[in-house]
Write a structure and sequence with these properties.
Blueprint: E1 2-9, E2 12-15, E3 21-29, E4 31-36, H1 42-45, E5 54-59, H2 61-64, H3 67-73, E6 77-80, H4 92-95, E7 98-100, E8 107-109, E9 112-115, E10 117-119, H5 122-129, E11 134-145, E12 154-167, E13 188-189, E14 206-211, E15 214-219, H6 220-269, H7 273-290, H8 301-313, H9 323-336, H10 342-349, H11 356-377
Parallel strand pairs: 5-12, 6-12
Antiparallel strand pairs: 1-11, 2-3, 3-9, 3-10, 4-5, 4-13, 6-7, 7-10, 8-9, 11-12, 14-15
Helix pairs in contact: 7-8, 8-9
């Protein structure tokens, strides 16, 4: 016997006065399903199939709706996800969250088995309303070769239901097609009652979808997964482009900031030589006004001020003084020492002849004038 799981929608839900939920759900179907050969074990490999081959398994109405099979689906427990073990009396109280109704609740509807499971656990009810929106029937069956290979490779017989699990909505890809690992799960379902009639393959309903710049046909059952994947890839591309744009924007801002800092540094490095010469000339004049013998070549401004203050008031005045204190002392010393101004001296004292020849001419002129005056008196 091989374990199997099939997956179906939860269906309609109705609440009882006790707070239980009663569902009307399709849980089994007739027709052909596709499985990976490796999921069917020896039944497939003994017929020459490789592990990754797709095999066709037929479930006839005679098997699906047999009294023996339907008798096993009544009163089976409900579980949250598939447990790692068969449900039995030993683990029922730990795992069961409700149960399928009596046999009268089992109906046949266009190739489906319809049941009315009753959900009795509050947390379980909350999960079915939100995260676990599908049923997955857990059952065992025998797989035997099917006589007409143009229709199917195998037939499922002796279907024996064990539990009905509420499982997360949606599929998780080919490696976890129904989100659990309790048993073999079909790769592809067919409509109830449909039989494959192509000896080279299985008939599938196809639908056209757009992939890039091409339109291709895929199985109808795969369209939703493909469209979801396209949406995810579109979003991933948009997110990547947005991230790239942000990186470029941040880089441009950083470059602009660095250029601004460089310009500021360049402007700060520009030296006004005329201003420096004027400042140095004025400082030297102030220092020499205090003491004209102070040497200035090779001395910094701070050194010149310190020397000038020391010459005026003594070394003790500047022994422990910092540059700010010395600057204050120097300003005070400058107020008492006015630099020499030759023009001001000439204006104040008048012109003085410094040439001896001019003095001799003046003396001769004065003597000549005195003699003329005496002659007039005689």
């Amino acid at each position: 016997m091989t374990r199997f799981v099939d997956r179906f929608g939860v269906g309609q839900l109705k609440e009882t006065k006790e707070g239980y939920l009663v569902a009307t759900s399709r849980v089994a179907r007739t027709g052909v399903q596709l499985y990976l050969a490796r999921e069917l074990g020896d039944a497939a490999t003994s017929q020459g199939f490789q592990p990754n081959d797709i095999v066709r398994v037929y479930r006839s109405p005679e098997q699906v709706f047999s009294d023996a099979s339907l008798g096993t689906i009544t009163r089976i427990p409900l579980t949250l996800d598939h447990p790692g073990e068969d449900l039995s009396a030993e683990n029922w109280s730990r795992l069961a969250k409700g149960e399928v109704g009596d046999s009268y609740a089992v109906e046949r509807e266009q190739g489906w088995v319809v049941v009315n499971p009753m959900l009795k656990d509050s947390d379980f009810i909350s999960a079915v309303k939100t995260t676990h929106r599908e049923w997955s029937a857990g059952y065992s069956a025998d797989i035997v070769p099917y006589a007409d290979k143009t229709l199917a490779d195998f037939e499922m017989i002796g279907i024996n239901y064990n539990h009905l699990a509420a499982v997360p909505r949606g599929r998780a890809g080919p490696e976890a097609r129904i989100g659990d690992s309790w048993g073999a799960s079909p790769v592809q379902d067919f409509q109830p009652g449909e039989l494959p009639n192509n000896p080279k393959g299985v008939h599938m309903d196809l639908k056209t979808v757009v992939l890039g710049d091409k339109a291709v046909q895929v199985a109808v059952a795969d369209v939703a997964a493909i469209e979801q994947y396209k949406a995810q890839m579109t979003k991933a591309l948009a997110d990547a482009e947005a991230a790239k744009s942000k990186v470029e924007k941040d880089k441009d801002e950083e470059i602009g900031e660095l250029k601004g800092k460089l310009k500021k540094a360049e402007d700060a490095a520009v030296v006004d030589l005329d201003a420096l010469v004027a400042d140095r000339t004025a400082l030297v004049a102030q220092v020499h006004a205090i003491d004209a013998s102070i040497p200035v070549i090779g001395k910094s401004a701070d050194e010149l001020r310190k020397t000038a203050v020391a010459r005026k008031w003594g070394d003790a005045m500047v022994a422990d003084a910092n540059p700010d204190v010395i600057m204050g002392l120097f300003k005070a010393a400058c107020k008492d020492s006015v630099p020499a101004n030759p023009v001001r001296g000439i204006v104040a004292d008048g012109l003085h002849d410094l040439n001896d020849a001019d003095k001799l001419v003046q003396v001769a002129h004065n003597g000549y004038a005195a003699r003329l005056q005496r002659n007039k008196g005689a």
